[in-house]
Amino acid sequence: MSTAARRMALTAFSALAATTLFATPALATVFHQGISMRSQAHINRQGEVSLSGTYHCELSPTSGSVQVKATVVQDGSRLSIGAGEVFCDGREHHWKAVSPLTAGLHAGPARAVAELQEIHMSGLMPRALSTVAQDEQVIEVVVDHR
To answer: Which of 116, 106, 114 is nearest to 140 (CA)?
Structure first.
């Protein structure tokens, strides 16, 4: 086998291995999951943006941890906020994501996505991330002057 052929085979194998490593957990191990968000995001006097809603989930014994991520897009500005790790016991819980930055958001309509994400671990390191529930809608960004 020539050097070029070996390099091509090694490159193809490496790409396949990387794809397998990062795409393997396509099937989520979270069961009975759901997430919703409220129809408004708020910007307070300090300039913090907050979104909130509810979630519910159950974990199998082999699951990793679960987190909420919220993203707001308005007039080309995009703000992604993590709401931290969640507790999966099958019951409905409240979540709230707060960012100290507005990222150009202002009063008016915006597109928002709330995601319930499972983190698949390999030892102490995250191996992959799966979105197991999602709520996408047009919301209203409200500036609170209180």
So the answer is: 106
